[in-house]
Recover the amino acids of this structure.
């Protein structure tokens, strides 16, 4: 009814410690100094978006070198990812002469690959963690054998 209450003098708010992580937290308001009763409520901190960024580049491989031995190139750079990062070669739009390491993202050019431009589509996923959601991006990388 128009009565203004002051925190500390008329009521006390009990807040949970460590309110920076994702999750649900409850707080309690208790009356003090002649004001009786309690009231509680909860609030939720959602997981943040995953800040994963994927940088791609075209890599060149000498045809003379790949004629004798397989070659490994790294056409991707992943930064800002939260959680474990995995890579998967997508068959649609990818050359059969290229394979992708699931853990490192390195691309292997098979021995005997003829000169030309080859593409590989890679699905990059970051699993997320307690405070960040999972994320996934698909990129197309080029490898030039010349």
């Amino acid at each position: 009814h128009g009565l203004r209450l002051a925190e500390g003098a008329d009521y006390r708010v009990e807040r949970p410690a460590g309110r920076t992580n994702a999750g649900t937290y409850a707080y309690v308001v208790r009356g003090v100094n002649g004001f009786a009763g309690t009231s509680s409520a909860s609030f939720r901190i959602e997981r943040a978006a995953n800040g994963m960024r994927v940088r791609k580049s075209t890599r060149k491989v000498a045809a003379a070198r790949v004629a004798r031995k397989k070659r490994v190139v790294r056409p991707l750079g992943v930064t800002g990812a939260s959680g474990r990062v995995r890579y998967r070669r997508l068959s649609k739009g990818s050359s059969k002469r290229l394979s992708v390491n699931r853990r490192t993202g390195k691309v292997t050019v098979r021995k005997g690959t003829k000169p030309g431009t080859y593409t590989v589509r890679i699905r990059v996923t970051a699993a997320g963690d307690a405070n960040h959601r999972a994320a996934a991006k698909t990129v197309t990388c080029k490898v030039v054998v010349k």
